[in-house]
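Technical annex B. To support the medicinal chemistry partners, we prepared a structural model of the target in complex with zinc ion, based solely on the information shown next.
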Amino acid sequence: MIIYSCHGAAKQVTGSCHLLECNEQRVLIDCGLIQGSRTAEQANREDFGFDPASIDAVLLTHAHLDHCGRLPLLVKRGFRGRILATAATRELAHVVLLDAAGLQEEDARRAQGRQRNGEAVEPPLYTVQDARQVMDLFADDVVYGETIQVAPGITARFLDAGHILGSASILIEVDDGSLQRRLVFSGDLGNPNRPIVRDPMPAPAADYVIMESTYGDRPHRSVPDSVEELYQAIRETTGRHGNVIIPTFALERTQEILYYLHIGIRTGAVPGHLRIFLDSPMAISATEIFRRHPECFDLDFVGELEHGDPFDMPGLHFTRETSESMAINTIQSGAVILAGSGMCNGGRVRHHLKHNLWRERCSIVFVGYAAEGTPARRIVDGAESVRLFNSDVPVRAQVWTINGFSAHAGQPSLIDWLGDAPRRKVFLVHGEVDRGMGRLHDVLTERGFSCQLPGMHEPIKID
Ligand code: ZN
């Protein structure tokens, strides 16, 4: 008997977690953090829906927090199996998980500070110590394209997903003694023709496909259009003596934006005197990891390296220390500031928003996904003000939403990735029902696929 169940990113976008059971072996694909509003994040404290101690192995598609962020909790609750991932994913996960654990501890400390008599204070979801334990469980690094034995009757092959450095879709073959089935888990899929990482490999022959649907409702603008829009935002903003704030996630988009700024300065598309700040210790660490993994680079990136290192260009400042970050606040114009978090619900970007969001001459440039309930989403949706550090800050800066940089495939790329080959079933995960997931369901059904939106913790028999 082969059973698949979804324990995260079922009809929602974050918290990816999938369980495959066969021959009394239990393999998890991803174990991500649920992200969004505080209420949404409370769900991380709930039961996994399975016993963590019973899991034999975790296959990790990539290092984004919504795919790896509950691993420390899994370990804290008893998981002692192996974790399988590519080398780049392992290194990036290290940075991402330590950062997340640090934030959890800091939140708990702050709550303790606000504690009133007798009030119970929630402990951190997990600690830095728990995150370190995760790192001890990584098995030998997985190489793209190699078939690996995961457990008796279960093999896996990691394929380029084109999403972030080290990212993979995973083809799993299961044999329960009487039935052999192939399942492919898309992980998060990138768009083709993005810089730095290679294009996604098309979905291989498989009976079942478990695929993400984040942007299943729309195409993205083309990358060249998006790059031109970014250059335009910078030109216009610096022309009226303002700053450009780009809320970014530490992984991938940050490095891509640096890559495009490198080209923009080289070709004169943006002023050469820009002061560019990468104001995120995690993004700085991630950028250093990028440098160590040329085996993941595509040809465009290798070509641009001949014109100099985009991660070490003149005018680029890495601000690791808090004091360096605070010094940026005194700059009135000509700065391009990349800081996290991408959804503006934490991190240093909130300080930069506090100093620039109310200034008409500045621009806020969103280049990534803004989940429901986050300040980023409110700004994108046209809010007149947002709450930052206990005060309402009016939104007067120009707001740009440039979705062509998305690390997620748009609808046409998702359809291309799936191809025309017949499938027994396509399970859609990692999307909002009234947006990408629902729309992709309709489009794929029209194309003759049998689609299903798995419910949370719902066991599904694979036959
Ligand atoms: Zn991702």
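Notes passed to the chemistry partners:
The chain has a mean pLDDT of 94.
The first helix runs from residue 38 to 42.
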